[in-house]
Design a protein that fits this description.
13 helices; 16% helix; 16-stranded antiparallel beta barrel
Length: 828
């Protein structure tokens, strides 16, 4: 009885099992085939390959769903559907995406088709995808926004063609540039908004913005400006400064952005004390004191601390402590507003450089980059030396960006340096034009290359043509002579300075000068040079022969000693009140005529220059010191012999309310080394020493013809000095971006002690039989010239321009005044 019941129960279970539908998703099944419908270009086997049965040849519902998703993700199809056919067969119905016949861009004027084609993902002869077209539309708009055009509109148009093909056209409405309409600073009290605008790279839009791009809104640049502001405060003692945010808001009425920087300045700190500590055995930490650029009592300057750390760490490495690490510390005294600086010198991890991998230098040779490193593969890893190499690479100006990072090497004590670079154009072609009251109108065409052939060489060729100055020059620099950090330069030049209102003669100079430059420190450089040049004078015949002129009624002929002609000039007219001395035949100064008669002379000289530069900005300095000392010894061959020394020092310091103070001191001395000095060897001074005077307007002057023609040629002098005090201040009522500021100054100085020829045996001149020896009368009063004036300085898009109006307060009797002076130029 129980057995029968078991049998019936088993049969019932079997019947139930076979009655279950075979399409249940929970149970795998064997599929005889997959039928594909609607495909034209894509092979049916390709479609089937996306459905992968298990090892038993069965597909469950999960595998079917995965295949469906994979087909859709290929982008080959507009639609994919899966149905059941007769006998449980799987039917895959597809609608293929069209093929793109061509891609075109319309309305784009500022960005070329080639650039847009390279940015979009849709390609000609590729598969059309609406999702990809939408992505390309956004990408094109982003490219325009990066170039400052936020009003851009991009509309894709799909033009259907036969055989399931389409043409894709992107219509671009570029719109106007979206500039920065205002820049505001919130929370700043120590520095005005006007001063902080000098720190950042983003500028407000103005009438001249079409000549630059710094007013275009760029979120990356705004973010970089936050760091520039922070670094500026840290350099000036604000150790707690925070640039909390850079808020940007688009103003639809102005069609531009308003940028606001929120700053929390904190207190300004000074250095209270400096200490040196070391955990390295037998290492004297106080020996690092000479390498510290931080001074007690000075403002706490983070940049000085960083430079000190770098110098100390490099010096420790030189002493054999390759893994020494210098870590700065600072304890703030919030009441006294001081920082106690401590330099901790510890033994760092023993890590070596396994490799230095360069990436992104497609043009620049590898060795040009590697020579900027003071470390190589196998050396101890020294972060200070790596940071220095990164700074050097940036200063080369070959790359848009340089970033050095590290990644683990083949073992725990090895690192790999990754040097990522983006190259930029290093060639320049410029046409420059300008005007000055000294040289008149001037134009220059130049071609230069900073990275010639990718070898780091510099070459420049320039041609100058102007109203009073003409010339040509070639320059070449090899920055690493014989793989040493020594720069070899060669200059070849030709210059003709024509006669003008300040000189009756023209000079022509042709020569060359090789030079060697050494960087002793980042702020100190030394250069040695050799110069060889030929110099000659030309003079119109009318200024070299007074007999070409009419008698004394028109232009009195120079008189002679009464004992020679008995008070009668060469034209037979009696002359009263004869001048003492004797004149040669001509109206130009005696040294000029002598130089003309002697012909071209050669100057062969050795010289050097020592330059110290701590300016915060070489183009528009507001703080720092610049000293340039030069000496040249002529007499290494050639026709002349002398020792010429000159020094020029400028000190800038920021004063209250964005006013910058400038003290400028200069001086020079010329010593004869046996032979007589020429007039052309003397110092010639004017507004370059004391403003308010004409070029060559001060110092010793020829007076031989003074009763007839007024002051003659400037003779120059062998000694000079000058000092100037100047205040430079912005015009607060003008937008910062205009670049205008005013100046008020006072100058004082002098030029004296002419040591050129004063008499000359005029062999070959017309009147030489009756007057073989001629003497010159000249003024050489050593008086102090002074002046006061105002100036207008414009950092214009056309180049730096300056206008000066100065009034002499004291001057020599024969000095020439020129109250207005203008100079400037541009490149375009």
């Amino acid at each position: 009885m129980y057995v029968g019941m078991r049998v019936r129960a088993g049969l019932l279970a079997a019947l139930i099992m076979f009655a279950m539908p075979v399409s249940s998703p929970a149970v795998a099944e064997s599929v005889p085939s997959i039928q594909v419908e609607g495909n034209r270009r894509v092979e049916a086997e390709t479609v089937r390959s996306y459905f992968r049965p298990d090892s038993g040849g069965r597909l469950d519902q999960g595998a079917i769903d995965d295949g469906l998703k994979a087909l859709i993700e290929t982008g080959l199809f507009q639609d994919v559907r899966i149905n059941r056919g007769a006998g449980g067969q799987i039917v895959v119905s597809v609608v293929e995406n069209p093929v793109i016949g061509r891609i075109a861009f319309e309305g784009n004027k500022k960005i070329k088709d080639e650039q847009l084609t390279g940015e979009v993902q849709s390609k000609a002869r590729g598969t059309f995808s609406r999702a990809m077209v939408q992505s390309d539309t956004l990408r094109i708009a982003e490219i325009y926004r990066r170039s400052g055009r936020y009003d851009v509109r991009v509309t894709p148009e799909i033009i259907e063609q036969p055989n399931n093909r389409v043409d894709l056209v992107f219509t671009v409405e570029e719109g106007a540039k979206t500039g920065v309409k205002s820049i505001e600073f919130v929370g700043n009290s120590a520095y005005s908004s006007y001063r902080l605008r000098d720190v950042i790279k983003t500028h407000e839009s103005n009438l001249l913005s079409f000549l630059a791009s710094s007013d275009i809104y760029d979120p990356d640049r705004v973010e970089a400006d936050r760091d520039l502001i922070r670094r500026f405060y840290l350099k000036n003692g604000f150790a707690d400064v925070q640039v909390v945010a850079a808020l940007t808001e688009y103003d639809p009425e102005k069609k531009g952005f308003n940028v606001t920087f929120k700053i929390e300045e904190g207190s300004q700190y000074r250095v209270g004390s400096i200490d040196f500590r070391s955990s390295i055995p037998n290492f004297d930490p106080t020996s690092m004191r000479n390498y510290s650029r931080v001074n007690v009592g000075s403002l706490y300057d983070v940049e000085s601390v960083e430079k000190s750390v770098e110098e100390m760490q490099i010096e420790a490495s030189r002493r054999g402590y390759a893994f020494a690490v210098v870590r700065p510390g600072g304890d703030r005294n919030f009441e006294a507003h001081t920082v106690s600086v401590v330099f901790n010198i510890d033994e760092g991890p023993r890590t070596y450089i396994e490799r230095i991998n360069l990436r992104g230098n497609t043009r620049t040779r590898d060795y040009v980059i590697r020579r900027e490193f003071d470390v190589s593969e196998g050396d101890a890893y020294n972060r200070a030396l790596v940071d220095r190499a990164e700074r050097r690479l940036k200063n080369l100006d070959y790359f848009k960006s340089v970033k050095i990072t590290t990644e683990p090497g083949s073992s725990s004590d090895r690192v790999i340096l990754l040097v990522d670079m983006e190259e930029k154009s290093t060639g320049d072609f410029s046409i420059s034009g300008g005007y000055s009251t000294t040289d008149g109108a001037l134009a220059e065409v130049s071609v230069s290359e900073r990275n010639l052939l990718g070898r780091g060489l510099f070459a420049k060729a320039a041609v100058t043509y102007g109203q009073y100055a003409r010339g040509a020059s070639l320059s070449f620099v090899e920055p690493y002579l014989l793989d040493y950090r020594v720069a070899l330069g060669l200059d070849v030049s030709y210059r003709a300075q024509l006669a003008n209102d300040y000189a009756s003669y023209s000079t022509t100079t042709l020569g060359f000068s090789p030079r060697l430059g050494f960087a002793l420190r980042e702020d100190l450089s030394l250069q040695f040079r050799y110069s060889l040049y030929q110099q000659s004078i030309t003079l119109p015949s009318i200024l070299n022969n007074c007999n070409n002129l009419a008698g004394p009624a028109f232009f009195p002929t120079p008189t002679y000693i009464s004992t020679v002609l008995g008070g009668v000039d060469p034209t037979g007219n009696a002359q009263a009140g004869l001048l003492p001395g004797c004149l040669s035949d001509g109206e130009s100064s005696l040294p000029v005529r002598e130089a003309l008669a002697n012909g071209a002379t050669w100057t062969s000289s050795l010289g050097y220059s020592l330059n110290y530069n701590t300016l915060d900005n070489n183009k528009n300095p507001t703080d720092g010191l610049l000293i340039d000392f030069k000496q040249d010894f002529a007499g290494v061959g050639g026709d002349v012999s002398y020792l010429k020394s000159a020094i020029d020092a400028k000190y800038y310091t920021p004063l209250a309310a964005d006013i910058v103070g400038l003290i400028h001191a200069q001086g020079g001395m010329l010593d004869s080394m046996g032979s007589q000095l020429r007039m052309l060897d003397q110092f010639q001074m004017g507004p370059n020493l004391i403003r308010g005077f004409a070029p060559n307007g001060i110092g010793p002057r020829d007076l031989t013809f003074y009763p007839y023609t007024g002051s003659g040629d400037s003779l120059g002098g062998t000694k000079y000095w000058g000092v100037s005090a100047e205040l430079q201040m912005p015009f607060w009522f003008l937008p910062k971006e205009v670049g205008l500021k005013g100046a008020a100054y006072a100058d004082a100085g002098s030029l004296w002690d002419y040591k050129g020829p004063t008499s000359w045996t005029a062999t070959g001149e017309v009147n030489s039989p009756t007057c073989p020896t001629c003497a010159m009368q000249y003024d050489d009063s050593n008086i102090i010239r002074t002046s006061v004036g105002v100036g207008l300085i414009w950092q214009s898009p056309f180049g730096p321009l300056r206008f000066d109006y100065a009034v002499p307060l004291s001057k020599g009797k024969y000095d020439i005044v020129q109250q207005f002076r203008f100079g400037g130029g541009t490149s375009f």
